[in-house]
Design a protein that fits this description.
With 208 residues, the protein is an alpha/beta fold. It has 8 helices and 8 strands; from the N terminus they run αβαββααβαβαβββαα. Helix 6 packs parallel to helix 8.
């Protein structure tokens, strides 16, 4: 973290901690994320409700990304369940998106985690949460399509472009090579992925 702040202070650091516990414990985790580590944002599980999220929102200028539609196959077990008790009977991930776009987003600090392996769900989340930043893992080793991801998450609505997207690729870059050239291979893969995403973003932002 000190290295990142020293060499790339303009790049936000997201702590992918996936925290999610009761309020008193969440307060301590928030201290860990924002005071001890100095992260700019953290990923959280919303499963225990708003009081498990609220302590992080006390840190103005910091962000929290709520797990919404994750990239792993097991996400279907809960995230695609329909909520009979909520008006309109939305799927659980749709309900999370509405809460994050609406009543939970007290200070404009929330974003959502949506997996690149489900571009149709990314598009649905974007419809429900048009202004929120989306953190999108799953490009690379998990098989997510970078171009489809950008097209689904970054769209023009009228004269406005939807909220920003942050597309993450980890293993495909970290393990681009097992040889002595691992650092150079990682750089090449990172640059290739960056160029692919930038080209797709220019197309999406220029679309009518």
């Amino acid at each position: 973290m000190r290295h990142m702040k020293a060499v790339a202070p303009q790049v936000p650091v997201i702590l992918d901690a996936k925290r999610g516990d009761i309020g008193s414990t969440a307060e301590q985790y928030a201290i860990e994320a924002f005071e001890r580590y100095g992260a700019d944002a953290v990923t959280l599980s919303p499963f225990m409700g708003f009081d498990s999220v609220q302590p992080y929102l006390k840190y103005h200028g910091k962000g929290a990304f709520l797990l919404c539609r994750t990239s792993n196959p097991g996400g279907d077990d809960l995230q695609n369940q329909r909520l009979a008790s909520v008006e309109g009977q939305p799927l659980l991930y749709e309900h999370v998106a509405r809460l994050a776009q609406g009543p939970w987003n007290l200070n404009g600090q929330l974003g959502l985690v949506v997996g690149a392996t489900y571009p149709a769900e990314i598009e649905r989340v974007r419809e429900l949460a048009p202004t929120l930043p989306l953190l999108i893992p799953g490009v690379g080793a998990q098989g997510g399509d970078a171009v489809a991801t950008v097209r689904a998450g970054l769209r023009r609505v009228g004269d406005d472009t939807t909220g920003p997207i942050i597309v993450n690729s980890s293993r495909a870059i970290l393990y681009a090579s097992a040889g002595d050239d691992f650092a150079q291979a990682a750089r090449r893969e990172a640059e290739r992925t960056r160029d692919l995403l930038n080209a797709a973003a220019q197309q999406a932002e220029g679309a009518p």
